[in-house]
UniProtKB/TrEMBL annotation:
Residues 149-331 form the Integrase catalytic domain. PANTHER family: TRANSPOSASE INSF FOR INSERTION SEQUENCE IS3B-RELATED (PTHR46889), TRANSPOSASE INSO FOR INSERTION SEQUENCE ELEMENT IS911B-RELATED (PTHR46889:SF4). PROSITE patterns: INTEGRASE. Pfam families: HTH_32 (PF13565), rve_3 (PF13683). Signal peptide: none annotated. InterPro entries: Homeodomain-like_sf, Integrase_cat-core, RNaseH-like_sf, RNaseH_sf, Transposase_IS3/IS150/IS904. This is Transposase. It comes from Orrella daihaiensis.
Length: 371
């Protein structure tokens, strides 16, 4: 049986060679692990190859073959490889598709413009508009945009001051003082300007300018404002003012007799009279901060010029960039007709002639089309 002996010799020599190679590989891997120190990071291709090879070995053989890693790690890689074959999660999105962007924007608009509306109320309004969505969809949209839904029916919340003003502004007039330093022969003199602003139309009226706003002067201002031919308080019921002692009891009594209730704001709460405070900032930043007032006449001229500019020439962002005196005309014009007019004006812009009207030497300016 010579051939059997030769075969056994070859098998033994091959096994000894493979064992020697494995021992050398083992020593090299151990030395690499010692030099690297820390956790080894394996590539994806290495994991896949090890998973395929490990599938062919028994548990005992796999344990002997795994030097740098554990057998359970190889088995875990193989399980993951099998799962990836049947995993199609990247090709589809979980859950129902999102609603259209236009509907989502409409939901956000309804929630912002009506903070007291709950999700069901918004769903009802959308249904009235022919848009079908469920309540949970509205809740999810509001949550994505960081909007807190309105209260449940019967659990209303308190009305904020801004909401109160918006509801009742057609009945409210606000008033306040601002001061101006005037350069005279006796030096700087402080003048007090009393003004009123209609919260609905934003029209401003200067009641008076004085150096000494005492009780007698305030009573005279109240009587002037409550005359029959004075349009300021027509249809109004409330007057907002701060706690300044200039608004004396005799002044309030005259207004009460005329049907106007005075509402005093809380201390250190300028937001409660925000319209008046904002107008003071406007007249200062746009006019008074840029002129040196020489005498009372200079102050009266600057204030009157600015008020006329504010009421009749200046566009207002809070009123859709319209001039205050043109509000009635603007409301009577149909929206489609207004858009058509704008479109026609844009077509012949090349031949358009613009006129500039100046006040106070160009400090205040407005533009209009030349007829």
């Amino acid at each position: 049986m010579l051939w059997a002996r030769v075969l056994m010799h070859l098998t033994t020599s091959v096994n000894e060679e493979v064992l020697t190679q494995n021992q050398m590989l083992t020593l090299q891997v151990q030395e690499l692990k010692r030099l690297l120190g820390g956790r080894l990071r394996y590539s994806v291709s290495f994991k896949m190859q090890m998973a395929r090879l490990g599938r062919k070995l028994t548990a005992a053989a796999l344990e002997r073959a795994c030097i740098a890693i554990r057998p359970n790690t190889v088995l875990g890689w193989f399980s993951k490889l099998v799962k990836q074959k049947y995993d199609h999660s990247e090709k589809r999105q979980p859950g129902r598709p999102r609603i259209r962007a236009e509907v989502e924007q409409l939901i956000v608009r309804l929630a912002i413009e009506n903070p007291r509306w709950g999700p069901k109320r918004i769903v009802g309004m959308l249904d009235h508009l022919g848009i079908k969505v469920c309540t949970q969809t509205v809740v999810n949209v509001l949550k994505r945009h960081g909007i807190r839904p309105g209260p449940a029916p019967g659990k209303g919340r308190g009305m904020t001051w801004n909401e109160f003003i918006a509801v009742h502004k057609a009945l409210i007039v606000a008033t306040d003082f601002f001061t101006a330093e005037v350069l005279t022969l006796r030096g700087l003199v402080t003048y007090y300007v009393l003004f009123f602003i209609d919260l609905d139309t934003r029209i401003v009226r200067i009641a008076g300018i004085t150096r000494n706003p005492n009780e007698m002067w305030m009573v005279r201002m109240a009587r002037n404002l409550t005359m029959d031919d004075e349009p300021l308080f027509i249809g109004k019921k409330y007057l907002i003012h701060d706690g300044d002692t200039k608004f004396c009891e005799q002044y309030k009594r005259i207004l009460r007799d005329a049907g106007i209730k005075c509402k005093k704001t809380l201390p250190y709460c300028p937001d409660m009279n925000a319209y008046a405070e904002r107008w003071i900032r406007s007249i200062r930043s746009e006019c008074l901060d840029h002129v040196i007032l020489l005498g009372e006449g200079s102050l009266r001229r600057a204030v009157s010029q600015y008020v006329e500019h504010y009421n009749a020439e200046r566009p207002h962002q809070g009123m859709d960039n319209q001039v205050l005196s043109a509000q009635d005309n603007r409301e009577s014009v149909d929206q489609d007709q207004h858009q058509n007019t704008q479109a026609a004006a844009n077509k012949d812009i090349a031949g358009l002639v613009i006129e500039r009207k100046e006040r106070l030497g160009g400090l205040l300016a407005t533009y209009k089309r030349k007829q």
